[in-house]
Amino acid sequence: MARLELSNLHAEVAEGDEKILEGVDLEVESGEIHALMGPNGSGKSTTAKVIAGHPAYEVTEGEVLLHLEDEEFGEDIEIDEDQRTWNLLDLEPNERAALGIFLGFQYPAEIEGVTMTNFLRTALNAKIEEREELFEDEDGEDEDEEDEGFESSPMEGPADEGEVGVAEFQQILQEKMEQLDMDEKFAQRYLNAGFSGGEKKQNEVLQAAILEPSVAVLDEIDSGLDIDRLQDVSEGINALRDEQGTGILQITHYQRILDYVEPDHVHVMLDGQIAKSGGPELAEKLEDKGYDWVREDVYGTA
Ligand code: ADP
Ligand code: MG
Ligand code: MG
């Protein structure tokens, strides 16, 4: 189990002094689904990017902590007491990802000759390697030396120690794609080549299924989806939670996706703060009454 904790988070644009986040408090545990809603420009995407470590933003106050429990690590890694709580603001984006934070990546529009399968396997192995480095025993032996003289083709030979090899990855991928009800052919396609908007969103969910994060931040994954695709993507998100215990921070402007991905908690962001939190009924009230109602309720004026 893991818990992501934002407290009194303030952030501004790195180049300039425009304040965007003005004291965000939020906790997401693995296994929970949180909806983060709010009008355009309220700071939802900035919250996501600050969690991931986007360089465009500077955190001026507050904390982003990740608390980890033993189960998080399987049998390979024994964690020390001082490795249970991580201050994400001290870590690089890839280190945050290795600790179990997922933000749908912005990868290049298209890379010639790279299939989805290879892209996903590379991403998984990068995470495994980074994780090993983060939890490396200080007195551990140098693994690189053992590898000497065993160079092999990346497509055929055995994987490096700790890495997921081609055959093993095929099995993982097949299992995850079945879980998400995705067409097998998808994995053979070249990265993003001719992907529809809906396929890109499904791909984002597949990435999260492969990487098995503790907390996945999904920013407007519902935008531009027709109803069938919305249902597919939603089932995939539910499977992340049900099958691998991923906590979900679902950022959305609209209530619609919450009919399919039922949140445990709903938060409304206004002007860089969480102005109101509640259960699913809060999202329904927003659907009926819009965001001005929250503004009136909180500030006494629209
Ligand atoms: P939301 O996702 O809720 O629509 P954002 O987090 O994208 O809101 O943006 C919040 C506010 O911060 C907006 O007024 C936006 O224009 C501003 N903003 C966000 N990122 C930047 C940036 N990199 N440079 C300048 N202003 C930004
Ligand atoms: Mg946004
Ligand atoms: Mg150790």
UniProtKB/TrEMBL annotation:
It holds the Pfam family ABC_tran. Residues 131-150 have a biased composition (Acidic residues). GO terms for molecular function: ATP binding; ATP hydrolysis activity. Keywords: ATP-binding, Nucleotide-binding. Residues 4-296 form the ABC transporter domain. Residues 131-163 are annotated as: Disordered. Gene3D superfamilies: P-loop containing nucleotide triphosphate hydrolases. This is ABC transporter ATP-binding protein.
